[in-house]
Structure formats: structure tokens, C-alpha cells
Amino acid sequence: METTGLPDGLIRNPSPPAVEQRKIAYKELFLLVTQILCILPSIIHDIIMTIISKIIPPPRKSLTGQVALVTGGGRGLGRGLALGLAKEGCKIAVVDINISNARGTANDIIDDGGVAKAYECNVADPAASRVLREAVMSDLGPVDILVNNAGILYGGDLLEKCDEADIKAVIDVNLLSHFWMLKEFLPSMKERNSGHIVAIASMASFVGDSAGSAYIASKFGVRGLMKVVHSEVKFKHNINTTTVYPYFINTSADYVNEWKLRVPAIPIEDVVDATIAGVQRNQVSVFVPSSFEYSVKLLDLLPVRSLERMKTVMDVQIKPHKKEKKSR
Q1: Which of the residues are catalytic?
Q2: Are the C-beta atoms of 174 and 121 separated by less than 8 Å?
Q3: Given this model, what pLDDT does residue 227 score?
Q4: Chain centroid offset of residue 48 CA
Q5: What are φ and ψ of residue 39, in 5° steps?
Q6: Which of 32, 116, 145, 234 lies in disulfide reach of 106, CB 3.0 to 4.6 Å?
Q7: Do the Cβ atoms of 195 and 68 come closer than 8 Å?
Q8: Eight-state DSSP code of residue 288
Q9: Model confidence over 232-248: pLDDT tens digits?
Q10: How does DSSP classify residue 152?
Q11: Residue of 234, 280, 269, 287 whose CA lies nearest to 57
Q12: Ranges in the chain, pLDDT < 70
């Protein structure tokens, strides 16, 4: 083939296969643009309906009689979610590594006229999650609402204060446990073409504050996992998903007093109310407080240097409490 006078590697006349490949590429590009133009009206409609739903929220669905499983339900946000869902008429499986705390939550629900049972389980252990599924199925029936809430928070600089055991514990509990719970409870939902999966993530998954590498990485992972799960189950199996992105939560003075926050931590009750409302309205994402949603998302549009300046101003510092360390 003639190449005289051209730099090495350049061909004056493309070979027939190259011409054919170029034609195929142009055809695929034309097809892609055509398909996008065809669905553009539907996309515009979806955007308008989303805006309307923000202004006029859809009615809430009833949760009466449904079985809700809440991990980390012995204290903090998990306890609040268990109590809140019980008030909506759910039968609650209270799951916690601390059985005493789990029983405390379950007993409070029972004393208030609800139905609940406590289960001791290390959700970071796949084998324990299998045993849990069998027990809950036997006691309460198939799970309708799975709330993956269990989590631990360790702070500290990655190289100086975050040791191997802490990193592994955070990833195991905050992220990998979601996989094990989904593997156990999602198949039943698929069989029934019904169910709701709730995951507690964090606004930190949009920001990436310093001194929280393992925790923030785990919440980034939850955010990504839930996007995949939603795409796999919503339209094929009619299973809803809700990912909750709360700001720092005031679980107790013991913890918050050791944190340095420019914006005060929010009450547990605010997150509980917003989460349950999100489930009842089948919201895919719930930000708490809701006013932070677009400001947090817009941070990604800032120049890198501007984002670093914002982080300097906010100056978030989270220190692990000694009780958190002992609860592993």
C-alpha cells in the first residue's frame, strides 16, 4: 500500500476494513443521537414531574402489617427508625450486635402495643446474616422493608491515626454488611415482586472531608451500591430503594461533644421522620436536612481549589469516642 512521503504509521488510502469500521461507527453515532432525541420528551417530562413532586409531595403509602428489619437497631438512629416504623404499624426485627440494646428497643415497641423481636447478629459476618434470615422468616415472616443502618465511625488521619483494624472494621460494618444483607433478603423480595431497601449513607459521601478516610470511603461505596441495586430491582421487580444522606447526627452528648462542627449536628428525630416519609413516598434519595441537597451536589461543580477553601472554612473534625472503640 502506498505510503511514500508520509510519516511512519500513516496510510494515504485507508484499507477496506478501516473504511467499513468507520461507516459502522458513524452509523452507531447517528443511531445513538436519534435514540436520545426520541427519549428527550420523556426526560423533560420526568424533570418536570420531579420538580412538581418537590413542591407537592406525593401521598404516603401505608406500612401497616409489613415486616421491617433494622440493623443497628439497639441504639442511636437505628433505635429511632425501629420505633418510628413500629408506630407506622410495622412488625420490627431489631438487629444489633449488642443483644441487650436490641431487646431494650424491642421491649419498648411491645410495651407500646407493637410487634417486635430482638436478634443478636454481627451483620459484617455473612454466615451470621444467613442465620438471621432464617430466624426472622420463622418468627415474623418475609422481610418487606430492609433498613441497612448499622455503622461505626472512626476518625483520624489515614497514615497517622487510622490503624488496619479500624479500617477493616469500618469497611466490614458500613459497606460489606450491605452486600451480605441484600444477598439474604433480596431474593424473597424478587420472588414477591415487592419490597423496599433502605440504606443510611451520609452527606460526607459527596464531600470527602479529611480525617475520615475509612468512614467516607464506606459511605461512597454505599452510595454507589444503592445506585446499582436501584437499577437492578426497581423496574424489573417493583422493589423500591431509598438512600438517606444525613448531615452529622446528634446521637448523644458523649459523641457530639468531641466533634468540631461549624453547623450543629441534627437531631435523630429529624432523620427518622425524613427517612420514614421517604419510604412512604418511594423517594430514591433523602437528604437531611433537605435544604442541603442541592448545595452539596453543587460542590462537585466548584474548581478544586475553591472546594478546598470551602473545606477549610467548614473545618469538620470528628474524633472517635472511646465507647465506639470498645463496641467492635
Answers
A1: 215
A2: no
A3: 96
A4: 25
A5: -90, -5
A6: 116
A7: no
A8: E
A9: 999 999 999 999 999 88
A10: -
A11: 280
A12: 1-15, 155-161, 208-211, 251-262, 307, 310-328
